[in-house]
């Protein structure tokens, strides 16, 4: 957890970098049910509204892995459920 907090503090850290499957670190944290990790990433500037070109974002990842606490956390951030593509 400390490593993630340090990385997101770096100016040049690619906070919304995607893996080859199109998922960001925030999406992975949602998939794993790591509320602390999601909060650290959001506090560090990760785009909570980011979705890839298929509409997959952190909320989808939470639902896919049946992480109810992750889903509640994201809904608590008032993340719209209808997002598709990167919000501008």
Class by alpha and beta content:
mainly alpha
Residue stretches low in confidence (pLDDT < 50, at least 5 long) are none
- Rg on CA atoms, Å: 12 Å
Alpha carbon gap, first and last residue: 29 Å
Overall spatial form: globular
SSE pattern, N- to C-terminal? HHHHH
Looking at CATH, the homologous superfamily is: Ankyrin repeat-containing domain
The average pLDDT value, as a whole number, equals 78
Oligomer class: single chain
Tally of contiguous helical segments: 5
What is the annotated CATH architecture?
Alpha Horseshoe
Classify the beta-strand content into a percent band.
Answer: under 5%
**Helical content class:** 40-55%
Report on this model:
With 88 residues, this protein is mostly helical. The protein has a single domain, classed as Serine Threonine Protein Phosphatase 5, Tetratricopeptide repeat (Alpha Horseshoe). The chain is built from 5 helices and no strands. The chain has helices at 2-9, 25-32, 35-43, 58-64, 68-76. Helix 2 packs antiparallel against helix 3 and helix 2 packs parallel to helix 4. The N and C termini lie far apart (29 Å). The model has no long low-confidence stretch (mean pLDDT 78).
Task: Please render the helix and strand layout as text.
Layout: H1 2-9, H2 25-32, H3 35-43, H4 58-64, H5 68-76
Helix pairs in contact: 2-3, 2-4, 4-5
Please sum up the structure shown.
With 88 residues, the chain is mostly helical. The chain has helices at 2-9, 25-32, 35-43, 58-64, 68-76. It is built from 5 helices and no strands.
């Amino acid at each position: 957890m400390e490593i993630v907090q340090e990385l997101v503090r770096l100016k040049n850290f690619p906070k919304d970098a995607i893996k080859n499957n199109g998922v960001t670190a925030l999406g992975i944290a949602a998939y794993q049910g790591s509320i602390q990790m999601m909060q650290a990433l959001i506090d560090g500037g990760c785009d909570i509204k980011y979705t890839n070109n298929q509409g997959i974002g952190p909320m989808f990842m939470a639902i896919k892995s049946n992480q109810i606490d992750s889903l509640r956390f994201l809904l608590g951030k008032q993340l719209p459920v209808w997002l598709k593509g990167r919000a501008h």
